[in-house]
Fold each of these.
Amino acid sequence: MKCKVCRQPAVIEVRRHNAGFCQGCFLAHCRNQVERAIKDHGMIGPGERVLVAVSGGKDSLALWDLLLQLGYEVDGVYIGLGIQGYSDPSAEFARGFSAEHGAKLLEVDLPDDFGFDVRSGAAADHRVPCSACGLSKRHIFDRAALEGSYDVLATGHNLDDEAAVLLGNVLRWDLAYMARQRPVLPAGDGFPRKVKPLVRLGERETAAYCVLQGIEYQVEECPMATGNRHLGYKDALNAIEERSPGTKAAFYSGFLDRAAALVAEVGEQSREGLHPCPGCGAPTTATELCAFCRLVDRAAEQKRRRLSLNR
Amino acid sequence: MKCKVCRQPAVIEVRRHNAGFCQGCFLAHCRNQVERAIKDHGMIGPGERVLVAVSGGKDSLALWDLLLQLGYEVDGVYIGLGIQGYSDPSAEFARGFSAEHGAKLLEVDLPDDFGFDVRSGAAADHRVPCSACGLSKRHIFDRAALEGSYDVLATGHNLDDEAAVLLGNVLRWDLAYMARQRPVLPAGDGFPRKVKPLVRLGERETAAYCVLQGIEYQVEECPMATGNRHLGYKDALNAIEERSPGTKAAFYSGFLDRAAALVAEVGEQSREGLHPCPGCGAPTTATELCAFCRLVDRAAEQKRRRLSLNR
């Protein structure tokens, strides 16, 4: 197979585009896709300061690299989740990238700064681990972007992620979640602007980008996520994509083009009734503390109980 | 496991309902589900004459039986599709049910009455076989219902079918198809009323209904359908259902409850511009002959060419 662009031997095939690419043209293809996503959806304006949510995995490090390549001013923020055997090496990949590129990395540590890890927080708050983790990450990333006065918070959600989340939302016809599933959520109501510049790249592409660009990343999947529903939706879409390449991209872009407007009104309603949490100031619809503050409180309460039992 | 209703030993488990049933209570469960679908969606009024589209498979024969059990006046219509090794035995199951229940069966034969079978029609019209088959069945079933002055045409689409079709429509965000995917399509514009009374039963249930009710049916899948997209969507949904029983039912009923209204307007538009086909009188938006008449013409043209080549 030859590179679609320069006719040199290809090193990767992207079936969805029915195209092969050599190393240089593939890296350019990834930059082009990110540039196009940013432009099409008005994600980042010229001169704006960007904060990238960094996990140490392929997507967030590829995103950080691509945004730097495209000339943006980009810092990273890493959250230590206290997941044994997984969080420490993940942090090392984030720090390694930061050091190598002379890019600033903010760090927050769930156990040190909030007194719990994903496992204990989930147990104390009667959530599955992925729910406690997602809640914590959304809260902390949003705060970091606002407190650092960044113009925009960028996350590494790729096409596979977005298609799988959309499938889950559609299987439940959760119209409020569908309405919020956009590549750009504007700032306001106490939230920073949030953007997903990788929505035009699949996870095979972000992994290949890292390999071909020489970026070292956490290859392991999170051990807490094994068997979760999201991965089930990914498997289902992968099986369909295998028979009909392009299905995922058509599903996601068709949603944005034709269906998002139909559910948009429901999304407007879902931001109604927001007010600052009396605990942390983050926007919430809860009558007292926000969900993250409740998680912190319950994890602390659980810890106290455990300590008093051991006394 | 015990029967949820009478506590006798269960013969079947329905995971979606988290329930087991004995033979008698399962048959009653199926009748109840069909009765509820008919009532909830206003499918069939008292005293109305029903025509069931019969393939000889589990769904259509279970439907015919269930509607008779519920006291409706129901004839069947069978289409011989000319599929070698498959159509003849299918017809025998349809005729067997008809004879055993003293119920009238209309028969139409694609090769005898229209001069082509699914394979040759598909080739002549440059369609995949399932497309030529579906087009022919919709056309002929609609005609049979109107010409026989039936009040309603009932088809054996079950929950698995509807969920898989919905998934396909959603993956393409084909809003016009989504708008028409309702359990009842009202009569008008040259179409009979069309209803799907099995939408509350999965295909495992319709198969079990036939077995427990002693109905003999065509067990083989259509050999022309192997590997088609629809079966791929079914596989994907089955994998998700296996992890989360009830997903398919929630997907389909959630669509009807929350999303169908959002796309309904698109459906209204799709019936605009219909006029009678100059060939057969069936409603069409085509400028000249309807798609079925074109299929018939192309199949005939192809046959003439083949005959002249062989001369």
Note: The CA atoms of residues 35 and 70 of chain B lie 8 Å apart.
Amino acid sequence: MTFAFDNAPVWLDLLGVFFFAVSGSLLAARKNIDIVGSLLLASLVGLGGGVIRDLILDSGPPAAFSNPAYLFPPLLATVLVYFLFTSVQRYTSLLILFDAGGLALFCMTGTVKALEVGMHPVAAVLLGVMTAVGGGLLRDVTANEVPQLFNPKDIYALPAFAGAALTSLLWVAGAFNVLTAAAVATIVFTFRVVAWRRSWQAPLAVHGWHRRSLRKGGSGDGGSGIEGRRD
Amino acid sequence: MTFAFDNAPVWLDLLGVFFFAVSGSLLAARKNIDIVGSLLLASLVGLGGGVIRDLILDSGPPAAFSNPAYLFPPLLATVLVYFLFTSVQRYTSLLILFDAGGLALFCMTGTVKALEVGMHPVAAVLLGVMTAVGGGLLRDVTANEVPQLFNPKDIYALPAFAGAALTSLLWVAGAFNVLTAAAVATIVFTFRVVAWRRSWQAPLAVHGWHRRSLRKGGSGDGGSGIEGRRD
Amino acid sequence: MTFAFDNAPVWLDLLGVFFFAVSGSLLAARKNIDIVGSLLLASLVGLGGGVIRDLILDSGPPAAFSNPAYLFPPLLATVLVYFLFTSVQRYTSLLILFDAGGLALFCMTGTVKALEVGMHPVAAVLLGVMTAVGGGLLRDVTANEVPQLFNPKDIYALPAFAGAALTSLLWVAGAFNVLTAAAVATIVFTFRVVAWRRSWQAPLAVHGWHRRSLRKGGSGDGGSGIEGRRD
């Protein structure tokens, strides 16, 4: 029953690249960056996580460079955002939705690729999470924003953790197939979007500390363009 | 006629490393960083793009680590800036010129190295662009500045794109040699410097948006030390 | 006499991972990041330097992914900081101490690993320094702070340089063993902590410039949460 995933799930990976690439072009739009920067940011976000994954797996040049098909999603995302995006208002919602789509697909493809080359299931989960959050981290770091990943008012990495862990469990149990993969992707996407909509929050890094009381102690964390910008 | 490029064009690469290293030390000077940080920033900018390139090509340890000659340009750049640089005023012009020199050489060496190991010409262009802009991106990200690459008031990546595409075309046509390489480098360098001098701008990431009207919508993008600092 | 270092010094590496991971969780605590972000920051800082090192050495997947033991120190650090850390006041001192511990161990393990695979001793020193400062650089860059590495009011990279150079010299002389390793680690740790306590400063990147006189010329370097925060 593990059909469609025996070979590297290229089409899932490409769809994930496209979702992340759109989020990169949307950020470029909001930050008033030009169209060349938009293409570069789309490429960086879409391909970054997968390139890091493939470098760590150490099985030849990364897919993004050995398979020219990977170069189309960033190009398509840049062109679509250039012609179709019209309103600053819808920016955040759209970025979150596309980012969640990429997250849902990449936490699976990263974990599966790692398991396929024989990596330990726990290490495969870590690599899946890195693949999923890597591109977005690169996006926010290069655009000089506080990464969405570290926004304490939002839950970002937990859905990726959950998706990678589920994928690894299903794989070890021999039950990872198209149906369960679709279920995992749906769970991760829904978890991420609902967490954002309802402003779910994880506990802080220190037991017994509260968000409010630390306000004065926290450093001025600069240009976080993400928190408090919902519509 | 493809003499001098049959083996990895080491001397071109070393010259590019030196140019980028000087730009790193100049940024260290302006940001009031000490001499050890200057050496590290010079190494990061000079060697960063090439290390990323060699990691992706996956053909043994990066040149910067297997060939000790690569360690001299950053050292030389740090020492030169320490003893010869005297005026804050000339900082930006000098940084742009050296950065443009590195850009012109690296977009070629990156593309050629990728083509030499049999990469697809389109993927080779992407790798050439990444090699050229990678070091400068690392420089600006680690110094906590908005990358020059994403400054909408300037054209940075387009010359690298042009240079990498020309190199790839010439290579495929069998016409890449010392003369055409010098021509490509001159075009890229001139394009970059003139674009900066004349404040050429590419279209924004979204069709029909204008720079002025977005002023309120754009996030406070923090400490961009680059824009509006010409002399 | 080179016993205990003939194989990769895994336990030293793990201890270094733990020290850096604690520094990551402490930064997460101060920046008011949630516990998932704390785990990710701990993993990034603890494992980042070593992953970069192993990617460059190009000898199979990085240790952090091929040996599941590497996943425990970040988990342990996150849990310890969550339950045991109680005071914002002691934050900086603790972070500096743990960071110095990681620095002392990683500048050695990075250099030794490079020498073991036959890298040139000078390149091995560079890789040792990169291993030691890489994790902390990733920590500060992703948390959107000016890297500690580039803080001109502090000496950070010089102890790592000294430690890596000493390790390389001792190795070439055939005198690198448990005793000399402990001595090197002690020297690096002491150098780093005393430099911080006494506010030692290295010369600036330009000869004859002084910190005060550049105040107006220096860019507003944004949210450096590190300088001037001693207790």
Note: DSSP finds eight helices and no strands in chain A.
Amino acid sequence: MAKQNAHFYPVILAGGRGTRFWPLSRKRRAKQLLALNGKRTMIQQTVDRLRPLAREKQFWIITNEDLKVEIGRQLPNLARRQTVAEPAGRNTAPAIGLAAFILLRHDPAAVIGMFPSDHVVADDKGFRTVLQRAVDLAALGENIVVLGVQPTRPETGYGYIETGERTQKDLFRVRRFTEKPNRQRAEEFLASGRYFWNSGMFLWRADTLARALREHLSETAPYLEQIAAAFGTRKFEATFRRLYPKCENISVDYAVLEPRSAKGEHASNLFCLPVNVGWNDLGSWAALYEYSARTKQNGAENVIRGANSFTLDAEGNYVHAPGKFVATVGVSNLVVVETDDALLVTTREQAQDVGKVVKYLDEKKMTKLV
Amino acid sequence: MAKQNAHFYPVILAGGRGTRFWPLSRKRRAKQLLALNGKRTMIQQTVDRLRPLAREKQFWIITNEDLKVEIGRQLPNLARRQTVAEPAGRNTAPAIGLAAFILLRHDPAAVIGMFPSDHVVADDKGFRTVLQRAVDLAALGENIVVLGVQPTRPETGYGYIETGERTQKDLFRVRRFTEKPNRQRAEEFLASGRYFWNSGMFLWRADTLARALREHLSETAPYLEQIAAAFGTRKFEATFRRLYPKCENISVDYAVLEPRSAKGEHASNLFCLPVNVGWNDLGSWAALYEYSARTKQNGAENVIRGANSFTLDAEGNYVHAPGKFVATVGVSNLVVVETDDALLVTTREQAQDVGKVVKYLDEKKMTKLV
């Protein structure tokens, strides 16, 4: 039975653009705001998944001005102040750091969980069981806990966590974080059994994170503290707008976690807790196809989001055409996505290149389409 | 300089359904009513092409009830009585036969030209030059003239005309009409130089055709004569509805021309006049792609009917998505067509199977989609 932790604050990072889901994703309708794998959007699913572990008023959303209004619409139970819109994107370290400094002023025992807003988990209940353990471990003091996903393939698109000593059942010390490997390294990682995918989900006490930021981002931390001090006052917007862009544009992994693991002396408090709960970052239309096809009964079939469909000599296709009758004849492994103003035709293999379409549209200043 | 022939009556057959252009073509918006290769629809282009050779009041359109209203809209200069809607489809022999019997009552010197409504011709002027010669030949008396297209490939989808003696410059006697050949036969036809594609365009005097029908369709001809006698009276609709469905369902080629050529004794009045004017029957989305790509400058490229487009590692695709931005990434030789209610994804190679989608929709009684 899940419990609502009085000091656990889920901080959901929702400032990404998710261009690889173009033409469905747009600047004001980023991936996390789309219902890609069901009726609820990715960010709604993220909140739904975490809600049994924390009261709604403990949630924080970090996003940008383009997305703030739509997020408010999708999460009507959160108060307006729980959604912070960055005046400029500065990656995860300033975002989560600001949350830490704000929370610390109100709850010295705060435990922060950092969560992407655009991933899916098949086994929500199993996920919460592991997460509750992570919250408890982080609450103990200096511990930093990262959720690691058991790799199932030599994926070259993710960062990996190398683990060392196993200190408890399914709890490992972190030796180091690694960048995306090449294919050969990824295969070695998979074979060794000591590597986990970096899920981007971290847990710390707010004071632990604040201390780490003061140590490793000594120029940025004071800006964040000043912004946090203004939070809830009339000065906040102006202070935020003035100081936040001065913060270093850096990920929390790179700013805080990697130096710690590399140095070694601090490594003792970095832990990896594996999660085997059907995690998927849905990084592209191809990933969405695989996720959708996997969860259906009849194998590697077509995934058709339409009113109705007819298929002849066609397999492995992903077609998104809501409300339309979709006929696929003699085609395989395609991705076809249509919206009111755009049509994408690509292959599952090349679906990661969809970002290049958005780049083109950006360059051509075809702003209505991005 | 083209002249308007006082006795030349173009009869345009516009009752076909053209299911291979689904989802653009529908029961009430058949292929001939679509603007597939320009701004004018196929039937508008057909009339435009012939207009220099005959006054508008000399045109006849044979169609069905589903298409009659839209044809009236597309050809506003034709009087309502010039469009005849068959109460039941009975192929070309009864259709052109009825036209012959009607015309004969008003103009004993009438020369009828039978024309499909859904083909294209690149060189309209060249076409008219040949056609004027055909009109003149047909007007002479018993002659039946068929326009033959010089084959450019061993096409197995067309009927062929085997020619015999060359009687004048570019005028041949017809030896026989053949059904669609297999590949080997088609290659032999192409190599021999004596075969032409049957364009479906025929010319006769109305009295010649009437005589042939009385001879070869002795049961059907009296029905047609009765219907023709009622034309222009209040009895016409009822008579038409009662008798036309009793007519034999047969093509004019099969009913009149093939028996004549096979018998031999009548062969002397059957002539083939070659036309080399960029004729194309646009039989499928693939044919439309080839026609459209051929008429553009830069080779075997993508043909995109959209508001705008972006292409990466993509070639040989036909995409129809009017008003939309179309992105093709890493795909080749596809056909993608979208309408308000449907999306077709197929290959140029398998585009001829699109009719099977319509068959499925017919069977499922999804009437809005057909």
Note: Chain A touches chain B at residues 22-23, 306-308, 310, 312-314, 317, 319, 321, 323-331, 334, 336, 338, 341-347, 349-351, 353-354, 356-357, 360-361, 366, 369 (CB under 8 Å).
